[in-house]
């Protein structure tokens, strides 16, 4: 017998503090209005889902779309509609929206979350170089694609040098993907070499390809390379294949 569907929450208490709206159910648990739309502001950068969805962007909830606690559909002032986890939003008093949005945008100015996309991308590259450049060789990284997940590929300088000495154009490459990871591919590669003292050289990042389905893209690339007989049978890791940056970009394009 299937469980009875829980009724939507009822707001028992609502207050506005400094322009921010706080609402709770009868048990004191924060909940969202399932009957009336609410004015909201993004507090996470969502530009991977569309232009203009920077921190501080405004929108209205679609009340019938929410479960009251975890997710809600938002129609942003840009015209885009997305299903959003509520932790990425703040509810605000419409009378204070211009002030609160301007304050939040100003707070992130000259950072990788700047509302200006050109400034944001410039600062993002600076952040990558600053936080990961010590551990990863980034100069050759080919970055492309669209999405909130990333497929990545890296190798080690010695592996390429050995292949070159043997007259081979391909060399062992690790190919994996990230889910919705804030640090993305660079952070994931960094996690895999946590003990930096154990490695004599930095990994060379070859590709970072943004996608909406990292697992599926990874499976496709692995399958193509397996069909070409490129699996590294002696590797302890399961995601190592003999390939090259040129071949990977050709497969992904």
Feature tags:
elongated, 12 strands, five-stranded mixed sheet, five-stranded antiparallel sheet, SH3 type barrels, 2 domains, alpha+beta, about 250 residues, 6 helices
What features would you describe in this structure?
The protein is α+β, with helices and mostly antiparallel strands. It has 2 domains: 13-107, SH3 type barrels (Roll); 133-252, no CATH class. The chain has helices spanning 97-107, 117-132, 157-165, 184-192, 214-227, 245-252; strands at residues 13-17, 20-24, 39-42, 58-62, 71-76, 81-85, 89-91, 142-145, 149-155, 171-178, 204-211, 240-243. The strands form 3 sheets. The protein has a 5-stranded antiparallel sheet with strand order 6-5-4-3-7, with no helix packed on it. A hairpin with a 4-residue loop joins strand 5 and strand 6. The protein is elongated and about 70 Å long. The mean pLDDT is 92.
Quick rundown:
The protein has 2 domains: 13-107, SH3 type barrels; 133-252, no CATH class.
Annotation field: number of helices: 6
* General shape: elongated
Helix content: 25-40%
Counting structural domains, the number is 2
Q: The biggest beta sheet, please?
A: 5 strands, antiparallel
Query: Which segments are poorly predicted (pLDDT under 50) over 5 or more consecutive residues?
Result: none
| Element pattern in H and E | EEEEEEEHHEEHEHEHEH
Rg for CA atoms: 23 Å
Distance separating the two termini: 49 Å
- In terms of quaternary structure, the protein is single chain
The neighbouring-strand order within the major sheet is 6-5-4-3-7
